[in-house]
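Table S2 (text version). Query chain:
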Amino acid sequence: MPLFQNAQFLASAHHLRDLPPATGVEVAFAGRSNAGKSSALNTLANHNRLAFVSKQPGRTQLINFFTLGNDKHLVDLPGYGYAKVPEALRAHWQQVLSTYLSERISLKGLVLVMDSRHPLTPLDRQMLDWFKPTGKPVHVLLTKSDKLSRNEANQTLMKVRKELVETWGEKVTVQLFSSLKKQGVEEAEKIIGGWFFNDTPND
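Corresponding C-alpha cell output:
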C-alpha cells in the first residue's frame, strides 16, 4: 500500500498561531517552487490531487497538514524561491518556515525535494541550515531524474550524497526519484515510513 494512501486533509496554516497542536509524529516536505514536490507527494500517495500541482511555481502559499491516522501527519510546506513573490510575503515565510523547522517538537524528519538538474541551490542550503541544529534526519529526493541520462543521474546522486554526508553524516539520505516514471517510490517509502512507524515519536 502506498505510504500516504489514506492521507486526508486536516488543516492549513498561514501563521505559526494557526498550526495544529504539536502532537504525534509529523514529516514535512519542502522544496523550491517547481522542483516537483507536489508531484512527488501525489506519487507517494497514489493520488492525483493530494497536493495541488500547478504550472505556476509558488502556488502553494500555505502549510498544509494531512492526517494519516493514529496521530501521524504529513506536512506540505510552501514552495520557496519563486521570484515573483512580494518581499513582505517572502519575509513572512522565511520567519514561519525557519521557526517551524527549528522548533516544531512533533516534526520527526524533513524530506527535501530538489530538481536533480539543479540540486543544492542556496535556498536548499538555507532550509538545511535551519533544520540541522535539531539533529533530526533529512531525506533528499532528487526529482525529475528521468530527464537526465543514467550516467548524469548517478553522477548527481554521488555528488549530492558526498557533500551532504560530509556535514550531516548518517542523518542524511539521498536518492533519485521520478514521479513520471514512478521510480524511487519503494526506497522513499522505506525511509520515510521508518520515521513514521518504526521510531519513537520524539527522540
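Notes on Table S2: The CA atoms of residues 150 and 156 lie 10 Å apart. The beta strands are 8-13, 25-31, 63-69, 72-76, 107-115, 138-143, 172-176.
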